[in-house]
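Step 1: inspect the first sequence and its C-alpha cells.
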Amino acid sequence: MGEKLMSCGGESTILNNWPCNSESSLSFIQTHRVNLIDELADYIDFIVDRGLEEHLLSKDDYEDITYERGPRKKVRKLLDIIDCLGEENASFFCSVFIQIKSANLTKQNTKQSEYSKSIKKHKEVLSRRNDCIKYYNARLGEKFYFTDHFVNLLLVKGHYSLEIKKNELLTFGQQRIHLQNNKDLKLEIKLYQIFQKLNDRRTPKKILVSGVAGIGKTVFVQKILHDFAKTSTYSNFDFVLNLTFRDLNLINNPTTLREIIRKKHGHLSSTLDDIFNNSEKLLMILDGFDEFKFYNQIDLDQYVFDPDEEALVPQIFGSLLNSELLPDATIVVTSRPTVINHIPIESIDRFVVITGFSVSEIEDYFQKFYRDDVLGTKIFLSVKENHFLFTLCYIPAFCWIVCSVLRGYSSLSIGEPKTMTDIYCHYLVILLKYHAHQVDCVKDEAVLKAVFNLGEIAYHSFLRHETLFYEQDVDLVQKLPPEIVNSFLDKTSVQELEGTENVLSFTHFTIQEFFAAFYYAFHEVSLSDDVMKSPVQEKLNLYSGWLDLFHRFLSGLMSVRNENVLFKHLKLEGSKRLDTYTSWLIESLIKHCENGYCILNLLHCLFEQQRSCLVQRIKPDVLRLNLSDNLLSPIDFHVLIYFLNLVNMDIDELDLTATHVNADYLKKLLPYLHRCRRFWIGENKLDSESIKVICSALTSSDCKMEQLGLGWTQLEDEDFLQIYKALCSNCSLQGLWTVLHATTPGQCMCGLRTTINTTLQT
C-alpha cells in the first residue's frame, strides 16, 4: 500500500504497478482493492460490458453487477466475482482495466482539447458580436467601437428595486447624489465584483440587476460579454451565454434549454453536453425580463430538471432561477423595476441597481458622442446650465437623445426642450429631417401616415406587453418607407424551421412608449381597447407602473408647446382627446390629493403639460401629497416645486417617507413648509444640515406645522438639541414622532425625550 505510484498517460495510477513478478494478479487485486475501487468507478460500465463480450462474466454475474446502485458498489461486486474466477481470468481483467482506462484517458484528453477550442471559438464569436457599441439609429456604415465609446456605469448593492414596484423613470438621480454624499456607506460595487463572495459566504449564483428605462442594462450585459471575450476578468467562467427575453417571446411552443441556446449560439452545438456537465463554470445572462410577455408566470411550481426536457419557456426560466435546472450555473437577470416583484425573491442571492452616469461620466459621454473634446465640453457646459436637460442626462439613453437633439435642433428652429416629451418630439422631427432624408417632405402626408403606422404598431404591441414582432405578422410594416423603418426600428434575422424570418423592435422601449402615446393622442377614431379605461387595463393586466411613461408622454404630446412643434413640422392638428384627457388629469389629481394616494407620476404628467392655468381647476378639499417610498431625483423635486408654486392653499399633509431626501432638497421645500400641517420625513438619513432646515421651518413666525415625523432618521444628540431649541419658540407643533437611539454603549436619551415631550405639552 505504501509503494510509489507511477504515472501513466499523465495520471498517477496503481495499475501501473501491474504486472508484478512478486505477486499474482489475484493477489494484486486483493492487495490494492481500495485503490482499484477509487480508480475504476468512472469506467465500471465499460469494464463490465467488455467482460460480458469476452465471456469472462456470465449473464447472471453481469446482472448482479449492474443491479448494484452506484459505480463504487458495482466495482466491489465485480472484484468479489473476480476472486472466484481464478488467476488467468484475474490477469485478463487487470489488462482490461488498463486498456479501458488508457482509452478513456485519451478520449478525455481529446475532449479537453475540443472543449478548450470551443472556449476559444466562443470568445471569438462574442468579440465579433460585441466589438462595437450600438448607438440607436446610427447612420449606415457608422461604427462606434466599444473600447472607444463605453462610459462607466455606477452599480450599487441594494434591494430598492424590490420595494419600488413602479417605473419611475428618473429615480436614479437622488440615489446617485445620496451615494456621492454618503461614500462611507460603501454601496458602490464594481462590475467584476458582482460575482464575488457575499460577506465571506458562498459565491452568489443568482443575481438580479435592475435599473429604470434607458439606464444601461443592455450595455451592462455587453460590457460583461466584451470583457469576457477580450480580457481575463471573468476567468472563473469557461462560457458566458447571453439570451434576451425579446427573443424568448418568439417561442410559443414547448422547447428545451439546449434548443434555446443553439438558436443563439449555434457554434456551441457539439460542446453543449460538456458545458452542461461543467455548469459551475457557466454564466448565463438573461436580459430584459420586463419585456418578457410571460413575466407573471414564473413563480409556479412547475420545473424541468434536464436541459433536454421539453417545457414552455416560463417553466425553463423558472427552473433556472430556482436552481432546479443547472443548479451550479451562475444566472444574471436584468430588468426594469416594474415587474421584478414577479421574480421569487428567495431565489436571488445578490441585488444590484444600475444608477447611470455621474457628472464626469456625462461629460465623458458628450466628448465621445461628438468625437471632439472641445465641442463635447462646450455642449456639455451648455446642457449643465439647464437643470432639466442635465437631470435627464444621468440616464444613458436620454443622454444619447439629448446629444442627438442638440446636434440638430438649432438648424430646425426648434425651441430648447423643457420636458421629457419635448426631447422626444424634437428627436422625432430631427430623425425625419436627417436620418430619413425627408428635407422638405417632412410635411408630406405620406410621412405623417408612416408615423401613425409606427404608432399603431407601438400601441397594440405595448398593450400586449410585446417588444418584438415578426415582420410578416405586421401588415403595417410593409407600408412603411425603408428610411422610416431604418430610423426607428431594429431588424434582426432569426433562423426558424421554415427558414429565415425578420424580427422587428423599436430601437428602445421608451421609443415604443412614445409612439404608443402619439398614436393614442392623435388617432381620430375611437379605440375599442382604450388604455385610459379601467376595464381595459384590468383585462390586459396593465398595472399602474407599466403605464407611467405612457401617461407622461401622452400628457406632453397634448401640450401646446409640442402641438405647435408637430403642426409646424408634420402639419399635425391638435388632439381631439385633449379635453377628455385634461378632465381625467384634473380629476385624478384632486382624488389623489384628497385621499393621500401616491401622486408622483400625476405631478410629472402635469409638468409635461406646461399649462399653469390647469392648476386653477385643481381644487381639492384638502391637499395631501404622498410621495413616499420613491427614491426621488432632482427632476422629481422639480415637478413637486412646480406644483407647489402654482397651488395656493395650505398643505394638509406632505409625506416624504423613505425618499432619500437631503438638505439640498429640503432647502428647496423650505418656502412651502410653513403652510404644511403634517410633515413626514422618516426613514431618511438626515444630517445636521437637514435638521437645520427643519428647525428653520419650525421657528418661522407663520409656521402651521402640527405633526412632524422623524422616525428612523439616524439623528445624533446635536440634532435633538437643535430640535429642542427650535421647539422652544414654536407654538404650533402638537406631535413629534422619532426613534431615539444610543450613540454609545449604555447611553440613554430618555432625559431629552422627556424634555421634548414637555416642550410639546406647554
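Step 2: inspect the second sequence and its C-alpha cells, then contrast the two.
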Amino acid sequence: MPESKPKIIGLDDAISSVYSAKFVLYCRVNTSRSFMHVPWPWQNDSYLLHYLFNFSGSQMITSIPKRIDEVSAPWLSSILETQVKDFNTTLVAGGHLADVFRIQDIIYADSGSLLPTSLIIKIACQHEGQRAIATSNNAYLREVLFFEQLAAEVPLRTPTIYTVQYDNPERCEYFCIIMEDLSSHSTLFDQLTDRLTEADIRKINLELAEFHALFWESDTLTLDWLGFPEDHYEFPMHEAALGCEDSMDTFVALWENAFKQSPFNEKWSSLEPMTRLICDGNAQRLLDQIYKILKQRPRTLLHNDLRGNNLFRTKPQLGESSEVTYIDWQLVAPGPPGLEFSEAWQHSVPPEIRRKDVDFLKQYHQRLTEIEPKTAAYTYQMLLEDYRLGYILWWMTLINLGTEVLKPLDTPEGSKAKALWGTNMPFMYQAIEDHDCYGMVKRLLSPTP
C-alpha cells in the first residue's frame, strides 16, 4: 500500500534525495500540469533514474477526455509514459458533479511494469445541468488545483495522483484526474450499507482537528483560486444555494414523483415553513445574514464534503491499522470549521448516532485547541452555531442540485441515487428539525430592532 503522505518534488531535487522503501514520489514532468507516480524502486535505484531521465525530456501531447469513450490506449500510454496495449472501463459513480470510472485489466507492453493494472479516472459530469452547477461554483478548478498545489501539505491521506489536466485556469469546465484505485487496499464507507460508526466519527474528528489546526489563519487561505479575501466569506456552493428560490417547486414535484410522497412530513414539521420562507424571495438576504456571521470567524482550510461516500478505510483483512483516505476535494475552501461537520453528518449518519453531535463537536474542539492554542478564539459556541448554519446552507443547495439529480431516478442509472436520496435526505430533515434551523432562519431574517 502506498505511504500515506506522498511528496511533490522537482526533478532537479529527485536524484539526490533519499527515501524509504515504501515512499511514493510524484514528479512534475512537464508544463502541461501532469504528474507521474513513480514507485520508489522495488528493484533498484536505476529504475527511478530511468524514469526521471525519461520523463524530464518528454513532452505530453494529450487532450482532455470529455467522455469515457475518449479514453484510448494511446491516450493512456501518453499519460503513463509507457505503452498500454488494452484495458476495460466500468462506471464507479455518476456523481452529483462529476463522473468516475475504473480503468481496469490494464495490459502493458512491458509485462514487467510495476504500474498498477487498475486506476480511477474522474472527468466532468456528462449531464449538462449538473456540469453547469459544478462550473458556476468552480468545483472542478478547486479539485485540480488542490491536487496540484496543496495535497502534499495536507496531514490527511489523499489518493495517489497520476495526472491532473484541466481546460481553463480561471473557470474550468472539463478536467481529468487519474488516481490510484483505492479499492486495492481500502473500502468505501457506503452511506446505505456500511455507514460510519461512532468510533469512525471520533477517529475522523481527531484527524480533522490536525488538518484544521495546520491551516488555521494560514497564508494558504489567500490563494486566489480558493475563493475570497480575508474580510469576506462565500459558501463554496453559493450559486447553487442562491438558486433555491427558482428550484423549490420543481424539487418538490420531482421528489413526489420519485418517492410518491412529499418531502415535507409531520416528523419534521418545521421543514416546509422554513423552506417556503427562504424561497419566498429571501434567499439572497438570508445568505447575506449568514455570511455576515461567518466572515467574522477565524478561518481554516475545509474539505466541505466529508460524507461517507467520500471516505475510504483500510481493509481489515490486511491486518494493518485502519487508515482513512479522503477523496473528492471539489469544494475545498477557507471557512470556519463548524461547516465541515454539517455536510459530514447530514446524510451519512442516522439520527440515533448523529444526535451525539454536540459531544462529537466538543471532542473535536478540545483536540483542536490542544494542537493549536490560538484556535481557542474560535469558541465552542461559535463552532456549534456554524454547524447549525451549515444545515441551512446545504438545504438551500440541495433544493437546487436536486432538480438535476432527481430527474433520472427512475432509470437503471439512477437507482443508486434514488436509494441514497430516499434514505439519507430524511436524516438531514431530522437534523434540521432537531437543531431548530427554522428558528435560526426567522431570527436571521427578522428586522434589526
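Step 3: confirm your contrast with the notes below.
Residues 1-61 have pLDDT under 50 and may be disordered. The longest strand covers residues 84-94.
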